[in-house]
Amino acid sequence: MAEGGSSVELSRSLTSSTLPPPRTRIFKIIVIGDSGVGKTCLTYRFCAGKFPEKTEATIGVDFRERLVEIDGEKIKIQLWDTAGQERFRKSMVQHYYRNVHAVVFVYDITNATSFRSLPAWIEECKQHALGTEVPRILVGNKCDLQDSIQVGTDVAQQYADAHSMPLFETSAKNPNSQGDGGCGGGNSDHVEAIFMTVAHKLKSQKPLVLGQLSGGSGGTINLSKGMHDEGDETGSWGCSSC
Amino acid sequence: MKRLERKKQNARVGLNGNGSVHREADCGRKQKLSEIHQALISDPVDIETLRRAAASKGGLLTDELRRKVWPKLLNINVYDLPYKPGRDVRENHKDYNQVLLDVRRSMKRFPKGMPAAERAVLQDQLIDIILEVLKRNPQLHYYQGYHDVAVTFLLVVGERMALAMLDKLSNYHLRDFMDPTMDSTKHILNYLMPILEQVDTELHDFMIRAEVGTIFALSWLITWYGHVLSEFRHTLRLYDFFLASHPLMPIYLAATIVLHREKDVKQTECDMAMVHHLLSRIPQDLPYELLISLSQDLFDQYPPSLLAKRAALQSRKSLSISTFQAFQLSTFHQRPDSVLQRLTKAPGATTSRHGLEAALPQDQVQLWGKGNRMVKMAVWGLSATLGVAVFAVAQTAMDWGPEVLLQLF
Predict the structure, then answer these.
(1) Under CATH, to which class is B87-177 assigned?
(2) Where do transmembrane segments lie in this chain (chain B) (predicted)?
(3) Between β-strands B381-383 and A102-108, what pairing exists: parallel, antiparallel or unpaired?
C-alpha cells in the first residue's frame, strides 16, 4: 500500500516541465456516495475554488487534483470523483479503489435514502480492502437547504462515531447564497477544510506506512483551527469537466 | 499505421488547398443532397447509399435530412410511430428517480439561450420517452448516460420519433450497456487496447504500464460521445456515423482519438491518474471528419472478429454484436415514405401524419417550411388534458425561433 513512495519515484524519472518539483507526495482520495449527493460539486469546489454552475451526472470516474502546501511541504491531492449509480460501482469503479489513501463518504442531508445507503458504501470499501485503517470521513452535503433537512446532525454524528469517522456537514454551494447560520453558514472555506483535514491526517502519518495507520478519530472536526490557510495554490487544471 | 499517417497528410493538404476547394465542397454537398434524396425515394430504399452518406464527409448535412434518413437507418416507419407516453409511465417505475435526477441536471445538453419553460417541456418529454422504452422492454436497464443519447434524438426528431429510435437502438446498438450489470459494457471496452496494440505497440505498452484502464472512454462509448462534446453539431455528426455503422464503431473512434493524441499521451507522466486525466478530457477542436474516416479504416483493417481472435475476447457474448447482422438485413427491405404513407393504416389524423405535420395544420406546415431555414422546429409537445398545445423549439444553430411561433396557437 506504500504507493505514495513509489509513484513519487516514477514521477521523478519521467518528470516534465509542467510537473511539480520532485518529492511531491501524492494523496489519493476517493469520493463516494449515492447519485446526486453532490460529489462532483464538492471535488470541483475544492479543486477550482468555486461552485460549479452546472454539474451533470458523472459517468464512470472523474479525476481532479490540486497542489497544496502543508507545513512547508507541497502535496498533491488527487480526488477521484465517482459515479453514484449502483451499476457503475459494481463493475467499473473497482479499478479506482486501488492504492487509495483516504475515503470521503458523502450523503445529502436532505435525502434520507442517501444516508441509509452509507452502510452499503462502507461495505463496498471493505470489499476493496479499505477498512478502518484507511482514514475515512463522512460529509453531509447541501446544508444550505435548511428547510428540507431529513438527516439530523445528531443521527449523523452517532453514525460517524460508531464508525470512527469525523463528520462534516457542509454545502458545496457558494456560502453567500446560504440562508441562516445553519451548519455551514458563513464559513467560506468549509469544503476546503474537509479535504485539508484529510490531507493533514495523511501527512501526520509516516510516509512509508501511509494509509495503513489507524484512522480512529471520532468526533466532529473543529473547523476554526485555521488549518486551511495553506492551500492557496489552486491547481490550474483538472476541474473543467463539470 | 503508415496508411493512417498518409491519410492524415492528405487531409492536411486538403485543408490548405486553394480557393477552388470551397467550390468543390459546395458542389460535393449538392451532389450528396441529390444522392440522399434519390436513395430515399428508391423502392426499396437505397440503404447502402444512405449509410455511406451518413458516414462520409459532412454526414447527413441538415437536421431536415436527419429526420428523414435516421429512421431509415433504423428501419422505422415514420407513419407508424408509437403514441406519446401517458402520464402513467412515471408511476411505480424503479428507475424514475434516477432518470429524473439525471435529466434535471442535464441542462448543458439543451441549446444555449433556450427559455427555461421550453427546456422544461423537453425535459419532461425526455423523462417520459426514457421511461416508456424501459417499460416496453423489461429486460433493459437504465444507465447514467442513456439520457445523453435520448436527448440528442429528442432535439432533432421530436418526441414520438425519438421514442421509436431509442426503442430500436436500445435493443441493438446500445443493448450491451443495458444489461443488469455493466460487465458486457466492460467487455466492449476491452476491444480498445487490442486495436491500439495493432496500430501503435509503443503507445499500447505505455498505457499498459500506466495501468490507465479504459474507463476514460466509458462515457464516450455509452453516450456515443454526447456526454463529452460541447458542440451539438459535432454530436450530430457522430450520431450520423454511428447510426450507419457497426455497434463497435464508437470503440474504434475512441482508439482513433487516443492514436491522434499519441504524442500528448507519451509525453505525459506514465501514471494512471495523469493518463486518465489527459485522455478523459476530449479536446473540443478534434478534426472529426478525419477521425471518422480513420476509424472506418481501422474497422476495415482490424474487424472485431480479428481482434476477438487475437485478444481472446470471444469469452463473452455481446448481444449488440451478435444481433447486428440480422438488424442490418432488416433495413434492406424498406419502402420509401410515399409508399409507406399509403400503406400504413391511419386510425386517426395524428397517427397517420408524423412529426411536424401531425402537430400543425397543413398550411402552417408550409408557412414553417418557407420561413427562416435556420429555425428548425424539432420538438413539440401536446398537452391534451389542458386542451392547450405547447410546443418548444429547439435548433442546433445558435439563433432562436421568434416568439411569433408561440402565437400559432
Answers:
(1) mainly alpha
(2) 206-226, 238-259, 377-398
(3) unpaired
Q: Which three cell numbers stand for residue B357?
A: 405535420
Per-residue pLDDT of B93-117, as tens digits, reads 899 999 999 999 999 899 989 999 9
Task: Specify whether the CB–CB gap between A76 and A199 falls below 8 A.
Answer: no
- What is the domain range of residue A161? 25-176+187-204
Identify the architecture of domain B182-316 in CATH: Orthogonal Bundle (1.10)
Residue bearing cell 452546472:
A54
CB-based contact B105 A95, cutoff 8 Å: no
A60 interface with B at CB cutoff 8 Å: yes
Which amino acid would we find at residue A4?
Answer: G
Domain spans, chain B: 87-177, 182-316
Q: Is the ipTM of this complex over 0.85?
A: no
Taking the C-alpha atoms of residue B83 and residue A59, their distance in angstroms, rounded to an integer, is 31
CA distances B281 to A68, B59, B229, B250, Å, are: 23, 24, 10, 16
Which position has the grid cell 494523496? A27
In one-letter notation, the amino acid at residue A219 is G
Q: Chain A residues with CB inside 8 Å of B269's CB?
A: 10-11, 14-16, 19
Domains contained in chain A, number: 1
Residue A241 to residue B281, Cβ atoms within 8 A: yes
Q: How far apart are CA B357 and CA A25, in angstroms?
A: 64
For B363-372, write each residue's pLDDT tens digit. Answer: 333 333 333 3
Q: What is the pTM of this model?
A: 0.79
Residue A145 lies in a domain: yes
Sign (positive or negative) of CA dihedral A126, A130, A133, A139 = negative
